[in-house]
Amino acid sequence: MLGGFALLMGAWTLWRRRIDSAPAPTIQRPIVGGTGPAVAAASQQGRFTLDMKVETVTRSVMMVMIKLEVTLANRSDRALRDVTIAGDLISASKTQPLDQQVASVDTQLNELREIERVGPHQTHCEHITVQMRCADIDVLYQGKVPMFVPLVRLRAECETAEPVARTFFLGMGAQGAKLHPIPLDGPPGNYQGITGRAVQAAA
Questions:
Q1: Tens-digit pLDDT profile for residues 131-148
Q2: Could you list the residue range(s) of the whole structural domain that residue 77 is in?
Q3: Of 4, 13, 87, 135, which has the fewest Cβ atoms less than 10 A away?
Q4: Dihedral, CA atoms, 8, 9, 13, 19, nearest 10 degrees?
Q5: Is 21 among the domain residues?
């Protein structure tokens, strides 16, 4: 397991170096004391955060299915209405570019749930299942042991708030401990001790 985990973290370190080496964004000087329509519109903009917790991970002969508790927290003083949660499940790849694996607000994702209303400063939870075909898994090997790293990609959006996209990688390990790739050499069934970590901070 350690060799496979080292391979995973080596790839992750390379991804982070690519992010850290990107040119610094240009920061515009803030306009103080504005009272125009743009300022008023910004003050009315909603804001929310998106998080998730793994409930169960099941592998059948054909599919990998992950049940999630997805949490949407309204961080604004106004209600958010008609919030759409979209997402999917993919396998982390050693060969694909980072921007093709980590979700952005523009990534094409499947619509999973629509929430009618989240009140000001309220938190709303949804139980959602994402799945992928076993044939689509990008297999890692530790010796002869096949393993993989699931990536759960989620996005939440509505008309009155900026969209939020997050990606979480899943692995075996206790909360707060290092995560190991998930083995594929056992029989189909439920996995125990699977947790998730955010690959990127909320947008």
A1: 999 999 999 998 999 999
A2: 2-16+48-198
A3: 135
A4: 60
A5: no
